[in-house]
Design goal:
By secondary structure, the protein is of the alpha+beta class. It has helices at 24-43, 59-65, 96-103, 125-135, 142-155, 202-210, and strands at residues 52-58, 79-83, 113-122, 160-169, 174-180, 195-196. It has 6 helices and 6 strands; from the N terminus they run H-E-H-E-H-E-H-H-E-E-E-H.
Length: 218
């Protein structure tokens, strides 16, 4: 894991043994390992954090460009996540400001994927159905519906705080993971539990892919 967002390696530094753009099982496995590393990194900071973005770069390219980081790179990892600078304070999990941020974000050529981590509130299916019915009259006003949905979810007695981790490769697979906030009696030293939730946040997946539609100028 690296938090240096400057000096990202260019695409010419790809290693011949692994090209994240090629897809297939190798790319999926590399993305899964990288997403887990991101989840562990963010979890170490505790809960109630702002959304965080990570650039995913080929480890061999990063090592070649920044030899001083060799001791910090995970052994055998094809991809390394690089934490980006803090987002503005108005960007919260699931907010319109986060959607706008993604819609206006681009990456330099050295970045082959990205990951977004945000905290959300999840409800049981029955509660979600009731909430959807209650919000139907507000659908003509998206902002009002969004505000009402957030307020209702935050105040629902069966809500669960959770962390959503979405990672994509620019020309490859995507992965959506969910980490539920542990119960009060949970072992604080136990490994975090991540659930695959591919259908949970399709708009976020689409938004992350869209950040690669335009390449950032040097």
């Amino acid at each position: 894991m690296s938090d240096d967002s400057d000096g990202l390696p260019g695409r010419d530094n790809f290693d011949d043994e692994f090209d994240p753009r090629s897809g297939g099982d190798d790319a999926a496995e590399a993305l899964a390992r990288c997403a887990r590393e991101v989840a562990d990194f963010v979890d170490a900071g505790g809960w109630h954090q702002a959304p965080q973005m990570f650039a995913l770069v080929p480890t061999v390219a990063l090592a070649a460009a920044e030899p001083g980081l060799l001791d910090d790179l995970a052994d055998g990892a094809a991809l390394t996540p690089i934490q980006q600078h803090s987002l503005s304070e108005d960007i919260t999990g699931g907010s319109p400001a986060l959607d706008e941020f993604l819609a206006t974000s681009t990456w330099p050529e050295g970045v082959v994927g990205c990951a977004l981590v945000q905290e959300i509130v999840v409800l049981p299916p029955a509660a979600e159905s009731t909430l959807d019915n209650a919000l139907m009259p507000l659908l003509a006003d998206p902002d009002a519906a969004d505000h009402a949905a957030r307020a209702a979810a935050e105040n629902h007695p069966e809500k669960r705080d959770a962390r959503l981790i979405v990672a994509v490769l620019a020309d490859g697979p995507s992965l959506t993971l969910l980490q539920l906030h542990p119960d009060e009696d949970a072992d604080p030293f136990a490994p975090i539990e991540l659930r695959i939730a591919e259908d949970l946040a399709p708009n976020v997946v689409h938004g992350l892919y869209a950040t690669f539609d335009a390449v950032e100028d040097d």
